[in-house]
Specification:
Blueprint: E1 2-9, E2 19-24, E3 30-36, H1 43-57, E4 63-66, H2 69-77, H3 87-99, E5 103-106, H4 113-121
Parallel strand pairs: 1-4, 4-5
Antiparallel strand pairs: 1-2, 2-3
Length: 134
Amino acid sequence: MKIYTDGYTIGKNPSQKGGGYVLTTELGERLHREHILQENFTNNEAELLGINKASQFASMGDEIVTDSQVAKDWAKNGFCKARPDLSPRAKEAKENIIFKKLTVTQVPREQNQAGIYIENNFKTEDGDLFGRRN
């Protein structure tokens, strides 16, 4: 199975309100969504949290698909040099990737089913799209 993941921030990046991430199937059906209320929440943080959750959801041999090269690298390396506070999440993702023999693939944004889901379904209270592209 392919699990697509994409993160977002509310408003700008970094967000003073928070953000989150979504996991979908390759048909764009939502598997999981987490909304996080946190100051200074970044898009890269959201992307890594999505990969980490996908690695928990995944079964042996599944594929995780993201549009974030940075978050993919963090998960594959098991640490975040630029954001040491996120290293425990990156380490957990790496351990799951190895143990479950997962593949992590990066695709262009327009091919990310989770990103398409976000764009089609998420609006702020003001009617603006969440800021995943900032």
